Q: What sequence folds into this?
């Protein structure tokens, strides 16, 4: 068995003295996929940032691709929510995808022919091959999310971290993103995805980690997502219906 | 006059390039504050008979260091610290100037600059500062653009946003230092922000904005300088050259905004007629 793409052991993270996430333990294999599920403020983004080495780990360990988060950065790609970026920024879609190549290009050098070819292929992979010259901010929310996914593809990473990639996107984008993620997994890329959409989590991920400032459950999604764990994760906002299914009334 | 023109063109290149990054990173207020915090450094050097450049440089670097240290503490936000530093430094500068013998005259020169009396040594100093800025900006172009667009992704890729931010702040400080003796402590910010803002309103890429900002600044600088010189020499109207250049830049900015808005309207109209047909 290959070593895990991600191994978390009793992880607690904090901003300043305030702990925001405690006791996360689990692992993701190469080609595996983990959904981070929880309400707003549960620590999903904090967990992603600690895997990136951007939030100090107070106790426990984070091992990424067999090493520290800082050393693994070249092989880890981060996909933010598209609407966190300035739509007025003067850069076109192709320019954004090319940013995924910067670490490979190195200091003082410009992206070469090979980098441009990889970026073009990545943009085509997300169905936006003809939109490379469009300014990033003029694309729809879903298209911008696909451009950011293309940037991660162009990075040729072995671990992909996605922060709510399906938030407010159109059905075409949902289909394309699910398809691309499945293809990346088949090539051995591991995924960690924060989401509040339980049906998407089922479609895209094999494992789930339920969070509410601490770990509620971690394991195969069918076992981790139960009425009981959802109630623990979402508190009073989780409603158990007569048939046994659970709905989240607010997150 | 020729020296003044060369000085304006050098400032156009460096101000235009740095200005685009200043707008992308929303550092206009930092630039505004720097031009005031540099003031006491220049006054002190002036009174002590030392190089104004070194005085300005020392004050600018101290500002950047103070800014980084105080905002890292997180108890104060950057805007608050900047406002405080700018006011305090400006007061200190005025107190120092008032110790001099020809208070009014000295204050006017320091506040509004004297571009027409620029000498060869100042030109060499400006060229050296411009060279440092341009080389650094070219070398770090893609990293600075990435940082401005998506700071978290830049950090995730292993870049150090804090280090890149300090480098950019130092570059802004160098431009302020290079320009302050020509256009004075009150108008420097116009050389950095106005050309970039004008270029941003009519261009679609960072590279385009940089070329546009430099060209805009050079043309406005030349027109402003020529106008103030002609009016002073031929018509006896004594116009301050630095201020005239800034006034021309402001008019140019308004024109650019109108051109940009008109282009967008035409674009929308074309799209609408394409969809209709």
A:
């Amino acid at each position: 068995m290959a070593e895990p793409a991600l191994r978390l052991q009793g992880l607690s993270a904090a901003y300043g003295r305030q702990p925001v996430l405690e006791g996360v333990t689990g692992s993701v294999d190469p080609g595996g996929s983990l959904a981070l599920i929880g309400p707003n403020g549960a620590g999903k983004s904090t967990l992603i940032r600690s895997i990136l080495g951007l939030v100090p780990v107070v106790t426990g360990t984070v091992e990424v691709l067999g090493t520290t988060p800082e050393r693994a950065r070249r092989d880890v790609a981060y996909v933010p929510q598209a609407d966190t970026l300035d739509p007025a920024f003067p850069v076109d879609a192709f320019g954004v995808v090319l940013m995924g190549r910067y670490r490979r290009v190195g200091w003082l050098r410009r992206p070469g022919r090979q980098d441009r070819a990889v970026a073009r292929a990545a943009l085509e992979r997300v169905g936006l091959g003809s939109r490379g010259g469009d300014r990033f901010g003029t694309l729809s929310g879903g298209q911008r999310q696909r451009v950011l996914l293309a940037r991660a593809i162009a990075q040729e990473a072995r671990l992909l971290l996605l922060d709510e990639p399906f938030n407010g996107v159109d059905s075409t984008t949902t289909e394309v993103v699910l398809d691309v993620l499945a293809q990346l997994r088949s090539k051995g890329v591991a995924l960690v995805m924060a989401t509040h959409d339980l049906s998407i989590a089922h479609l895209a991920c094999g494992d789930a980690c339920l969070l509410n400032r601490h770990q509620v459950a971690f394991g195969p999604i069918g076992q981790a997502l139960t009425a009981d764990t959802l109630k623990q994760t979402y508190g009073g906002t989780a409603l158990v219906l007569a048939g046994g299914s659970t709905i989240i009334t607010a997150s | 006059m020729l020296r003044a023109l060369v000085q304006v063109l050098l400032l156009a290149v460096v101000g235009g390039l740095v200005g685009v990054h200043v707008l992308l990173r929303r550092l206009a207020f930092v630039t505004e504050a720097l031009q005031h915090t540099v003031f006491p450094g220049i006054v002190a050097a002036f009174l002590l008979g030392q190089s104004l450049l070194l005085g300005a440089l020392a004050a600018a670097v101290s500002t950047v260091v103070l800014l980084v240290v105080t905002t890292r503490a997180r108890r104060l936000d950057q805007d608050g610290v900047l406002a405080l530093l700018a006011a305090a430094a400006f007061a200190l500068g005025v107190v120092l100037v008032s110790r001099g013998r020809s208070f009014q005259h000295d204050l006017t020169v320091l506040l509004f600059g004297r571009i027409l009396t620029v000498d060869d040594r100042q030109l060499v100093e400006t060229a050296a500062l411009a060279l440092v800025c341009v080389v650094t900006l070219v070398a770090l172009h893609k990293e600075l653009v990435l940082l401005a667009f998506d700071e978290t992704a830049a950090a995730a890729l292993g870049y150090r946003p804090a280090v890149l931010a300090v480098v950019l702040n130092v570059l802004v400080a160098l431009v302020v230092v290079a320009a302050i003796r020509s256009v004075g402590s009150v108008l420097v910010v116009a050389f950095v922000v106005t050309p970039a803002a004008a270029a941003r309103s009519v261009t679609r890429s960072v590279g385009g904005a940089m070329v546009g900002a430099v060209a805009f600044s050079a043309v406005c600088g030349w027109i402003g300088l020529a106008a103030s010189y002609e009016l002073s020499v031929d018509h006896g109207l004594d116009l301050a050259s630095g201020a005239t250049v800034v006034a021309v830049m402001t008019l140019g900015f308004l024109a650019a905004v109108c051109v940009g808005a008109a282009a967008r309207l035409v674009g929308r109209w074309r799209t609408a007629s394409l969809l209709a047909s």
